[in-house]
Specification:
elongated
Length: 244
Amino acid sequence: MFRDIDAKCYIMIDGDDTYPAEFGREMVNEVLEKNVDMVVGDRLSSTYFTENKRPFHNFGNTIVRNSINRLFKTNIRDIMTGYRAFSYEFVKTFPVLSKGFEIETEMTIHAVDKNMHISNVIVTYRDRPEGSESKLNTVSDGMKVLRTIVSLYRVYKPFQFFGIISTILMLLAIGFFIPVAVDFYHIGLVNRYPTLIVCGFAVIAAILSFFTGLILDTLLKKDKREFEFKLQQADRWYKDLLEK
């Protein structure tokens, strides 16, 4: 859909009648007048926790928001909202890879990673109309979202991701090696050859993990430079759109 439609501003809204349409004008103004790339319709700061009758959804939204804000060092108030506005540049540079409820997470992390201008607009939320059914499964879709966060953290922050794995492996290797070293110091013999071998493999895996993160981080920086070129292309397309 994003590929086929050219517009100055795009609005995404869930079709379940939980978001009042009147906030759309304010969100559009953020894009058109303040050059915001993604406007987040923030439910969590208004009526969401009182209107939503599913406690696990409330808990899941809090976990996802806190996880992304901590991992990516941002301050977005509502990650899973289905009410957003986008600029032309965002839409034309965003690769849609997810098919389900993970797409909100993907949109958010893409905007944060590419240093796009993000703003939050507080919107009221009302519970689903009586008789309607949600397609969201709290457990299965929640797990998909968490897996998406981990996967995107690996993709967008490879040095940190593999650095954590490398540190854990190295600490485990050191922890298991200490008793072997103590025995050798006291009796001059190695009584735990299997442990020593495992420690050696753990150290090798830690080193490989560290350099994997280093290489991927270098490739990521190259990709960011190429993204700036794509952004310039999108700017030219947007100017052509305005002239039509």
